[in-house]
Amino acid sequence: MKRSRITSLTASALCAAFVACTAVANAGVAAALPIYPASDPDPFYGQPQGLAEAAVGEPLAVRPMPPLLAFPDTDVWQVKYRTTNSEDHPISSVTTVLVPRNRPVNGPLLSYQHIINALGPRCAPSRTLYSNDPDLQIKEAPALNLALQRGWTVALPDHLGPNSAYGAARLGGTITLDGIRAVQRVPELAVAESPVALAGYSGGGMASAWAAALAPTYAPELNIVGVAEGGVPMNIGKMANGLGMQPHPAFGLAMAAALGLEREYPDKLPISEQLNDRGLAMRDEMVNACTNGILAAGAGRSATEVAKTTDLMSSPQAWEVLNENSVELYPGVPTAPIFEWHSPTDVLIPVDSIEATIARYCAAGAKVQSDLFPSPDHLTTAVLGLPTALDYLDARFRGDPAPSNC
To answer: Total domain count for the chain?
Structure first.
């Protein structure tokens, strides 16, 4: 299958529309339960007993992993840790840590949030790093090597959580922050007092933006010196208002994100209850799928084909969830300096929401460097801006004053 240029950004927009159009059940219809991914056969990924007694960010298990050819002269570790889901229930997640052998003790620590368009745990970074499937390989490996060559330790959290809750952006923020806490508490990694930076683009940018916004209240002890977030969908509800319900080549991503949100909010978003027989069959087909399988399952479909109801605005709970996962509407302001980049002509995201969010941050006294990288498509902007983003973070690690064009 030829790889699509459609990213998780498109998925966020489509998902918002799909959720809005399928959020209200017909009276008297028997409930269909959410469908969750198959359990991982590796017990390292299992949810242990006694999670509620563990502190957030507490390491639960640590293991060294085989070295990876993609990252020469680098040791690999995995850390399982306690975090919290969107309904305040304790869960565990995993982060993979790349440790360059030339790194100094307490040297820079970068948490990089990779784009994950998936419903299956095998699609998470901790798994894809060791996959032979070319469709699952980490495409950012060259950029990560630039960080490793600078002596930075790099953490790659599985920021969708154990249920692959694709679409739950705020969850990605808490998992990211607790992953940093956990990594800093593992003595073998020697980063207990490291300065920390966050980075990510598109869906990974969403997790990074949420982590930055939540950090002052959720994890104030972390020494986050800089954040690089690109192509961030700041308001997924606004995307829904501007999106029609015509057949779309990326509808599979839309449905996958709706199902991921149902996994995270089963009481507020009973999406499965709204699906007709075709929708339920599609859901079952993509329950453990990664990007290409999801795209194939839903190519050319639309919400009206798979849903029993299309009442757009009749579910306050659905819009509550969309708003809860929109950074623009979260009142918190990051205290760490931010480098933000996007294309002014990016048709996949509401650029006005980025501008409004940055303006709010600036008015609150945040230091923000917002740069524009005009380009023909969303992914090209990621490539154009990443070198500048890494240089920005390098300067923050050195302690240079943060620039601002507020």
So the answer is: 1
* Domain harbouring 227, CATH code: 3.40.50.1820
Structure token pair of residue 364? 């609150």
Query: From CA 143, how far away is CA 261, in angstroms rounded?
Result: 30
Strands in 153-157's sheet, in edge-to-edge order, are 59-65, 74-84, 90-100, 153-157, 109-113, 196-201, 224-230, 338-342, 368-372
Q: Facing residues of 93 across strands?
A: 81
Tell me the two tokens of residue 76: 């690999």
- The answer to whether the pTM exceeds 0.90 is yes
pLDDT (tens digit per residue) in 255-311 = 888 899 999 999 888 888 888 999 999 999 999 999 889 989 988 888 888 888 755
Domain that holds residue 5: 1-406
Collapsing DSSP states into helix, strand and coil, what is residue 129? Answer: coil
DSSP codes of every residue in 352-397: HHHHHHHHHHHHTT--EEEEE---SSHHHHHHHHHHHHHHHHHHHH
Apex CA 128: angle with CA 158 and CA 191, to 5°? 50
- Give per-residue pLDDT as tens, 342-383: 999 988 788 999 999 999 999 999 999 999 999 988 889 999
Start-to-end C-alpha separation, the chain: 44
Q: Is 244 exposed, middle or buried (0-12, 13-18, 19+ CB in 10 A)?
A: exposed
Q: In the structure encoding, which two tokens stand for residue 134, read together? A: 């070319």
Alpha carbon 201 to its chain centroid, in Å, reads 9
Residue appearing with tokens 């208002």: 241
Per-residue b or e along 34-61, where b marks 16 or more CB atoms closer than 10 Å to that residue's CB: bbbbeebeeeebeeeeebeebebbbbbe
Strand ranges for 101-205 from DSSP E: 109-113, 153-157, 196-201
User: Residue 64 is inside which H or E element, if any?
Assistant: strand 59-65
Contact between 303 and 21 under an 8 Å Cβ cutoff? The reply is yes
For the record, the structure tokens of 55 come out as 């502190």
Q: What are phi and psi of 93, to 5 degrees?
A: -140, 180
In whole angstroms, give the CA distance from residue 352 to residue 344: 9
Interacting residues of 358 by C-beta distance below 8 A, sequence separation 6+: 340, 368, 370, 406
What's the rounded Cα separation, in Å, for the pair 25 and 33? 13
